[in-house]
């Protein structure tokens, strides 16, 4: 008889964090493990942003702020959404939280009831289905295909939506595939949504700046302005500005939903860290030239890693258009080695190649592995050589 709630027992801990922890353990035991499992930039937070945090402490900005974020940060977010995304929001349509993950959590708390369905294209970011379960709602997984560049088609969306559907999760550029939906793709999905007026949409734009597609980034509201009143735009400073540890994310959307999310936040965490809010203001308002060189480094590593993976027997990696992940199909390698599945292959590779990777099943798609290339070229070269040798 467990003291734990049924709700919490339905949820599993983040598998990506588990692999990273396992690699750290093996490293502590003296093994030379290369970790390609982490979901965070290897770059340092740019100096002017760090300085803004230091200045905030010195100036005594160390107390509570408004629950939904400082007026300065909200204005910086409004200006950013206008500048980068051609979107117009007022301060009452913005909520700042402790990371984009927290924004999504607040959203689910604000809109989901027991039995509501949340449509999630797979492979997905690991937290979407488990967070859904935390609110007694039901994840409805839509399996995409590599031959369709891991994009959910309008027909698949139509087939997944029911009268119990409450929320659709869109993540582009996508963790773990690096897939980017074009404006035309989003327009086609938006047309399907017109027939389901009850369905809300969350667009997770966290990898917005890590993109090398032919056309500039757009989200669902850009493609379908008529969906603005039921779309929550979620973004943050973690990935683009190498600020994962500062924990600042935000949501922009219709005031009624934002104010319900704010109520949840006011009764749980209160305001996000005051010092981090000042640093995030500097990130969004300051010189944006720190973003480009990091993006170019990811792109260069992407090109190297995808080519290196495709040269390995039994591995088939699709070129991505953003993020710092590749999601190769490894079914050939699993078969060749006589292993059971992707989990067994990841286990084999951490032991034989001493490279830590996350099995695709953690993202809702077996037969694949996720390779993070948010690490130096020199480390990536060593890792690819080891993987190649272990699979040859
Ligand atoms: N959304 C996606 C798709 C992510 O990959 C991540 C981080 O891994 C997040 C959201 C969370 O970002 P944050 O650090 O702002 O909570």
TrEMBL record:
<keyword id="KW-0663">Pyridoxal phosphate</keyword>
<dbReference type="InterPro" id="IPR015424">
    <property type="entry name" value="PyrdxlP-dep_Trfase"/>
</dbReference>
<dbReference type="GO" id="GO:0030170">
    <property type="term" value="F:pyridoxal phosphate binding"/>
</dbReference>
<dbReference type="InterPro" id="IPR004838">
    <property type="entry name" value="NHTrfase_class1_PyrdxlP-BS"/>
</dbReference>
<dbReference type="GO" id="GO:0006520">
    <property type="term" value="P:amino acid metabolic process"/>
</dbReference>
<keyword id="KW-0808">Transferase</keyword>
<dbReference type="InterPro" id="IPR015422">
    <property type="entry name" value="PyrdxlP-dep_Trfase_small"/>
</dbReference>
<comment type="similarity">
    <text>Belongs to the class-I pyridoxal-phosphate-dependent aminotransferase family.</text>
</comment>
<protein>
    <recommendedName>
        <fullName>Aminotransferase</fullName>
        <ecNumber>2.6.1.-</ecNumber>
    </recommendedName>
</protein>
<feature type="domain" description="Aminotransferase class I/classII large">
    <location>
        <begin position="31"/>
        <end position="387"/>
    </location>
</feature>
<dbReference type="GO" id="GO:0008483">
    <property type="term" value="F:transaminase activity"/>
</dbReference>
<dbReference type="InterPro" id="IPR050596">
    <property type="entry name" value="AspAT/PAT-like"/>
</dbReference>
<dbReference type="InterPro" id="IPR015421">
    <property type="entry name" value="PyrdxlP-dep_Trfase_major"/>
</dbReference>
<dbReference type="Pfam" id="PF00155">
    <property type="entry name" value="Aminotran_1_2"/>
</dbReference>
<dbReference type="InterPro" id="IPR004839">
    <property type="entry name" value="Aminotransferase_I/II_large"/>
</dbReference>
<keyword id="KW-0032">Aminotransferase</keyword>
């Amino acid at each position: 008889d467990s003291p734990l709630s049924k709700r919490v027992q339905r949820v599993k801990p983040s598998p990506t964090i588990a692999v990273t922890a396992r690699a750290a353990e093996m490293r502590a035991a003296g093994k030379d493990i290369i970790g390609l499992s982490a979901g965070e930039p290897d770059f340092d937070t740019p100096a002017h942003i760090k300085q803004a945090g230091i200045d905030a402490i010195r100036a005594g900005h160390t107390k509570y702020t408004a629950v939904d974020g400082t007026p300065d940060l909200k204005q910086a977010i409004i200006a950013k959404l206008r500048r980068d995304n051609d979107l117009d929001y007022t301060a009452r349509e913005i909520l700042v939280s402790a990371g984009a993950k927290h924004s999504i959590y607040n959203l689910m708390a604000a809109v989901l009831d027991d039995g509501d369905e949340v449509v999630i294209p797979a492979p997905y970011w690991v937290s979407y289905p488990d967070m859904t379960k935390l609110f007694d709602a039901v994840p409805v997984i839509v399996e995409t295909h590599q031959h369709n560049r891991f994009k959910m088609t309008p027909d698949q969306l139509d087939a997944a939506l029911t009268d119990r559907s409450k929320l659709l999760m869109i993540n582009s550029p996508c963790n773990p595939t690096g897939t980017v939906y074009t404006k035309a793709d989003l327009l086609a999905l938006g047309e399907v949504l017109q027939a389901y007026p009850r369905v809300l949409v969350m667009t997770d734009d966290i990898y917005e700046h890590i993109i090398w597609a032919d056309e500039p980034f757009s989200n669902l509201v850009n493609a379908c302005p008529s969906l603005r009143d039921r779309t929550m735009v979620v973004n943050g400073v973690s990935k683009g500005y190498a600020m994962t540890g500062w924990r600042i994310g935000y949501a922009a959307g219709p005031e009624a939903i934002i104010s319900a999310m704010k109520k949840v936040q006011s009764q749980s965490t209160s305001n996000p860290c005051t010092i981090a809010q000042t640093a995030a203001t500097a990130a969004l308002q300051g010189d944006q030239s720190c973003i480009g060189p990091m993006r170019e480094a990811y792109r260069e590593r992407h090109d190297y890693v995808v080519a290196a993976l495709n040269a390995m027997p039994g591995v088939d990696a699709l070129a991505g258009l953003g993020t710092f992940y590749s999601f190769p199909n490894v079914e050939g390698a699993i078969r060749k080695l006589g292993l059971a599945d992707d989990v067994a292959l990841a286990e084999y590779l951490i032991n034989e190649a001493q490279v830590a990777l996350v099995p695709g099943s953690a993202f809702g798609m077996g037969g694949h592995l996720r390779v993070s290339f948010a690490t130096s070229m020199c480390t990536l070269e060593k890792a690819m050589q080891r993987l190649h040798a272990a699979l040859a």
